[in-house]
Amino acid sequence: MGALMAQRKNTPKAPTAQPAARAGTERSTGALDDERIGEDIRGLRKARRMTLADLSRRIGRSVAYLSKLERNLTKPSVAELQALGEALGVKINFFFHETNAASHRKMVVRKADRRKLSYADGVTDHLLSPSLEGELELLMSVFEPGSGSGETSYFHEGEEAGVVLAGALEFWVGDEHFVCEEGDSFSFKSSVPHRYRNNGAVQTVVIWVVTPPSY
């Protein structure tokens, strides 16, 4: 599924749409939500199939500290949040949320509040799920002409399905090769090696459902 799913590969591609964050200089229209920061970190870590020990080694902090952080028993510094974002493959802005979010924020994502990641290969992923804590991940991928998951097939745990809202997306799933056009839907086991690309001249938009989350 979109570039988010090619985290889906073992090593995620680095998002490049926004300037690289520097400790103390990144700005957001939202605010760091103390009640969601731990949930975001835990959800991303699990989606990456990382243990607390794995993350601990990557950022140089103890497992005990990370455990408290995920349970919202402590708060990270800006530098630590930057390091966490780099280790988990997201920009620091991922952890910022709109301050006017309603009480139903754990069930609803407003259009203006969608978090997104843009990649150097021309793919932009919009996370439509309120969090990555559940069994399903919902996202929208926008593929510029010629963009895709790369020339090498990959596989991972779970299943994925989707529907093409605009344009067309070319798939390779195992030995199968097919093209889904506007209005077509698809579903396959993610354990089967797969890749995809927009081989057309117009933008392609796809809604994906993935289980378990693989952001």
The total count of helices amounts to 4
Q: What's the CATH architecture of the largest domain?
A: Sandwich
Q: How many domains would you count in the coordinates?
A: 2
Distance between the termini: 10 Å
Order of secondary-structure elements: EHHHHEEEEEEEEEE
**Major sheet summary line:** 6 strands, antiparallel
Give the beta-strand count: 11
User: Based on helices, strands and strand pairing, what is the structural class?
Assistant: alpha+beta
Q: Helical percent range? A: 10-25%
Low-confidence stretches: 7-32
Strand content of the residues, in percent? 25-35%
3D shape: elongated
Multimeric status of the protein: single chain
CATH homologous superfamily designation of the largest domain: Jelly Rolls
Rounded mean pLDDT score:
80
The fold-level CATH name of the largest domain is: Jelly Rolls
Report Rg. 17 Å
